[in-house]
Design a protein that fits this description.
single chain, about 725 residues, alpha/beta, GIY-YIG endonuclease, Arc Repressor Mutant, subunit A, Rossmann fold, 5 domains, seven-stranded parallel sheet, six-stranded parallel sheet, 20 helices
Length: about 725
Amino acid sequence: MVPAQAPVVHVIVPRSLPGGLDYAWAGDQPPVVGQLVVVEVGKQLCHGVVQALPTQSDYAQLKPAQPLTPTTVLPPAMMRFLDWVARYNLATPGDVWRAALPGGEAPAAPIPPQVWALAKDSDSLLKNMRLTPERQKVVEVVSGRSLHSPIPGTQAALATAAGVSLGVVAGLCEAGVVQRVDAPMAAAAPAPRLATLNPAQQAAAEALTLGVRQRAFWPAVLDGVTGSGKTEVYLAAIADMLQRPQGQALVLVPEIALTPQWLARFQARFGFMPAVWHSATAQGAKASTWWGVLQGNTRVVVGARSALFLPFCDLQLVVVDEEHDPSYKQDEGGLIYHARDMAIVRAQLSDCPVLLTSATPSLETWHKVLQGKYTHLSLPTRFNDAQLPQVQVVDLTKHSPAGPQSYISAPLQAALTATLAKGEQALLFLNRRGYAPLLICRACGHRCDCPRCSASLVVHGHHLECHHCGYREAQPEACPSCGATDKLQPFGPGTRRIAEEVQRLLPQARVAVADRDSLATPKQLHDVITQLERGEIDVLVGTQMVAKGHHFPQLTLVGVVDADLGLAQGDLRAAERTFQLLTQVAGRAGRGDKPGQVLLQTHLPDHPLMQALQRLDRDAFYQLELNARQGMPPYTRLTALILSGADDRTVAYAAQNLAAQCQATAPVRLLGPAPAALHKRKDVYRHRLLLMTPDAPHKLLHHWLAQARLPKGVTLRVDVDPQSFG
């Protein structure tokens, strides 16, 4: 029952509602902001968080809000962060709250492990009972005179350890001689292994360590060439933090597949494993990490973008590794956000430094460095004086592959042969999985497309697959349009086709493929990495999942099969992303004591991007891109509005109406509406509008969207700072 004068609590629940809901407090102790509660929404119970404590409610009848047991309160910085994310991304508070709760509810508090111990008055108790040899064994095991490791808190485990029957243990428990107690806290972590840093690393590490100690917001960019040892810089700052009794660090990585080598390095350095957080983490491990972070026992977390929403109680350092990576953008589901940008806010609200690391920073980040808004920490050379690879552009207009179904030019084939002859390894990079991107009828020109998306089906062996919705079908024996047999021809290369060609050209080579089809789990990727490190693979054919974060000392050749592929995307960031990706993959070559070589196959050898890659002149390319981006990010702000529905005409009509209601005046511009680049996806049609503003457009958007009336069946999603236009 709720008392008649019970306090009112305003609660955020994990539902897509425009705001929180009022409830009557049903706890024995006064409520506080940030406290987790159990409430009823409709007829379902769910977990919520107290957002505010209003003096009264507009509603006479309020449902009760029961405090979660045990009493759990989120840190104030966490509450400010959740509120900021919702407001900035124009999301509902419930969408953000869902991101903060693994599985949609606060995980059950882990039960502390228990071990056996002798009662304080065990000596006097033993005097009153006969101490048989079997009972003596149990006493010796528990006291540690015969066994130094603790015994798990079950009677059966203790009986097994002592080599006695279960009845002997039960009798001692009933007499109160032995009892279960909470396991002692783990011993303090050993002192970290000291790393040898070069002068540039040492200077950057000292600056970052000072920033952590000062406990103030400090945004910095660690700008280092591939192989320069950026990880060791922030590990040095983490090591300094761990020498003090308190403090937590969060390291974000763009893909969880990057973590096996990172974790191995961390464990070798610190003697323990950090907590890992990503979508594939087991629920038990997530619960342990969630509570450990909240209570301050978990001090280092490495994870994907969702780790931002963990309830850190004493965050002292945030690191965004490979900050330029597109996978930091969450553009599916209820909450759309950019994890890099939210990480900066997370650090600011926690009064701690944030370190963005990359060999190829995003133009937005680089622009802030040039403006002096971010501190620039530079690592201009590779670690241990390793040399950057030599980059050669292979002009495919002059060195075309041998046949219509060949994709490896003569210069690349010669480089592969020479590399393998020296006992070294090669990586062939093509950011397209499968066998071929198109299946076309040579008789009538019919192209096999996805029935659910405006995209082609990709050839995967004996079946066709859509990479947007997952639709699959068997590869037809005859053309679905004209019925011709033996006329369906796969066009273009995928990773499988390149691996097949390498095996044909170099029959003795040990070839492996690293793409999402062959390496669906982190363990499978780890196994391939291990094989490569052991020299069991000669040529690895891979996509962007092997383009960064890996160190292979014997890998001296990188061949980019189609350097023009990214430029075909045709969006604002196509050239920037292509440069970043190719620079990263080129950086896999020559990281040991042997020189590296990179061959870029291209039909555009004179393109400024190819010329900059050949000279490894990133700054010159970035300046060209910044000059070309006048009037676009990073000089202005974009917000995308995506309307979608099952009927194309209805969606197009809704988009036109929405555009007509916009009261945009200079310098604000509205572009569109227009069909999205991927117009149809999963049987849903999509149209887009793009708002260009000099500053954050929230006030305008709130006024505009408050008047919007959408037809039934049409939904609207707002993407603040969009990173793609598909």
